[in-house]
Amino acid sequence: MPNNIPVFTISLDFELYWGIFDKVPLADRVEYFANTRQVIPHMLDLFETQQLHVTWATVGMLFAKDWQDWSAAVPIEMPSYHNGQLSAYRLKSEFGRNGRLNSCFFAPELVKQIHRTPYQEMATHTFAHYYCQESGQTVEQFRKDLQAAQDIAARQGMALQSLVFPRNQYNQSYLKVCREEGIKTVRSNPKDWFWAQTVEDKLINKILRTGDAYIPLSQRTSFPFSSLKLEDGLPLSIPASRLLRPVHGSKDILNKFRLNRILSEMTEAAKRKECYHLWWHPHNFGTYPERSMSDLKVIVEHFKQLQKGYGMQSMSMLEIYEYMSGL
């Protein structure tokens, strides 16, 4: 098989409130997550119609029906973060008695819809939005988390084979455990130095990551298949290329810059016969769902043009692994 075909892949970090509970009060985001739940079926319709192969890295807790079901799925050993506020398990005591907020924590019907939709890969974002570089937690606690994620997915007939590390806390030391627990591919961070550390993040790193979304500050974001390495006993690491940042409500010029940056990078990847890996959180569409979907349609249409002009293919993370395995 040729190793110089252009590829477009999308991975989504599907988490709802589990992804931001330690940063934002839930009271500020109830409508935001309601919008997120409404926009996901529209994403799926677009992906199915245009045959986009997408990896949905989903927090395992979203598979649960309610807090009772959640309790039955919790692993025996939980992460022992030095900072206890980082543990998702503390949320039951705060929100477990208010069933009206369950839609911010559980989404089994959306999980099923994603799984049923053609071309979509159900993957894991760990069971409890697990932070793999935070102090206090251990590799064996991470293993228990992955086992819990696989167990709750297996109840719906799913086997999770791709993983995205929460908060991009990519941990090389944890890759062996990933493979032992059924993970064949993981998303790694871009190669630029300002993506190297996402735990104790410096202001300059944040500024450069944000600025690079609008003007070129980084190295080329696409990568050839020849740069990917299959190693025995480890999952394939597939670098991210670009985060599709949320729509700015009153800054149309920035919205245009951010979208054009992605389109130009996609074009360069197609011309170079390289891979381009776009990612975002579905809840990033929660503030301006209509405008966000409009931007996504522009991106998808651009991919279709590159597919026609350069033979660019759409692949999920797992499909990239399978393709690499066949080379």
Task: Briefly summarize what is shown.
This protein has ten helices and nine strands. The chain has helices spanning 30-49, 67-73, 91-95, 108-116, 139-154, 175-180, 203-212, 252-272, 289-310, 317-326; strands at residues 7-14, 54-58, 120-124, 162-164, 185-188, 236-239, 242-243, 275-280, 313-314.
Structure commentary:
The protein has 327 residues and is of the alpha/beta class. The protein has a single domain, classed as TIM Barrel (Alpha-Beta Barrel), CATH 3.20.20.370. Helices cover 39% and strands 12% of the residues. It has 10 helices and 9 strands. The chain has helices spanning 30-49, 67-73, 91-95, 108-116, 139-154, 175-180, 203-212, 252-272, 289-310, 317-326, and strands at 7-14, 54-58, 120-124, 162-164, 185-188, 236-239, 242-243, 275-280, 313-314. The strands form 2 sheets. Strands 1, 2, 3, 7, 8 and 9 form a 6-stranded parallel beta sheet that branches. It has a 3-stranded parallel beta sheet with strand order 4-5-6. Helix 1 runs parallel beside helix 9 and helix 8 runs parallel beside helix 9 (289-310). The chain is globular and about 55 Å long. The protein starts with 6 loop residues before the first strand and ends with a helix.
Number of domains: 1
Summarize the amount of helix as a percent range.
Answer: 25-40%
- Main sheet properties: 6 strands, parallel
Radius of gyration, CA atoms, in whole angstroms: 19 Å
> What is the fold named in CATH at topology level?
TIM Barrel
Mind telling me the CATH class?
Alpha Beta
- Categorize the overall geometry: globular
What value does the average pLDDT take? 91
Cα separation of the termini: 5 Å
Order of helices and strands: EHEHHHEHEHEHEEHEHEH
Count of extended strands: 9
Oligomeric form: single chain
Please give the CATH architecture.
Answer: Alpha-Beta Barrel
Residue share in β-strands = 5-15%
